[in-house]
Amino acid sequence: MTLPASPSTATNQLRPATWMRPGSARHYAAISSWLLVLPLLAIYAIGFLYPLTKLITLSFIGGLFANYGRLLDDPLYAAVLANTVGIATAVTVSCVFIGYPVALAMARLKGRLALVIAACVFIPLWTSVLIRSYAWIVLLQRHGIVNSLLVATNLTDGPLKLLYTQGAVVLAMTHVLLPFVIVPIFSTLQMLPQDYARAARNLGAGAIRTFLFVTLPLSLPGVFAGATMCFVLALGFYITPALVGGPGSMLMANLIGQQTTVLLDWPFAAALSTVLLAMTIVFIVVFRKALSFSKGFSSVH
């Protein structure tokens, strides 16, 4: 006589194999986790680690520090590096000061006005960087719209040199990178509970004091995230400085492009790229430390 299967035995038969079954609601088994992650690791190794290894190896051709020594021997390269960091810092500061009020308006306003502001922020992201940079050439050239308005209103006696200057580079790069600062700040502000601000107002704090001591400290993670993204992108910007900047506005990306396409000095270009990569990593670590300090400083005890 065959005994009926117990409920536990029937349940075990209906369960999937161990290698497919997660250990809990949030964890997969080890082999299934590796199968899921393996395509990403392959893409990461082929598309990033291998080219990066080749780049660093190429920078040592001709001697252990032959190409890196040129960076110290010629002051031109140090000046370009300092100019790159200075312009990236100026663009980041400009984007934060302009983008924070816009992100705050997007998070606080409702209805059509909020949609209009959001459209002004996101629509430029759908436009090519080349087109947006060329638009600034049309605006800032000697007989462009800005100079025409200045001359027509008698604010200047003649056209000003607005194009091919560092100011034009900072202005154009700020316009291109502004959405990358607004979006993280907006996401942080939107997630902040309004009860904190209302509690501060009920305790007697005015609108400015509430913003300075409640809203701003709690939104610093978004500010640091947007500033980090903007600064890293500005360090490697190529198209905009090449179009609206003059010889005095050369950045590291333009110098690397010159070494590869004009002078065909690939080892030295690899050394410049490695230095720029190392500097980017250093600044990311600094931003991360500042973000950790901000979280600890603004935490509520």
UniProtKB/TrEMBL annotation:
CC per GO annotation: plasma membrane
Domain of life: Bacteria
UniProt cross-references to SUPFAM superfamilies, sorted A to Z: MetI-like
Sequence intervals crossing the membrane: 28-50, 76-101, 113-137, 168-189, 210-239, 266-287
Subcellular localization(s) per the UniProt record: Cell membrane
Keyword Membrane assigned: yes
Protein family per UniProt: Belongs to the binding-protein-dependent transport system permease family. CysTW subfamily.
The ABC transmembrane type-1 domain, residue ranges: 81-287
InterPro entries named among the record's database cross-references: MetI-like, MetI-like_sf
Record has Transport as a keyword: yes
Protein name (record): Mannopine transport system permease protein
Naturally occurring in which organism (per UniProt): Rhizobium lusitanum
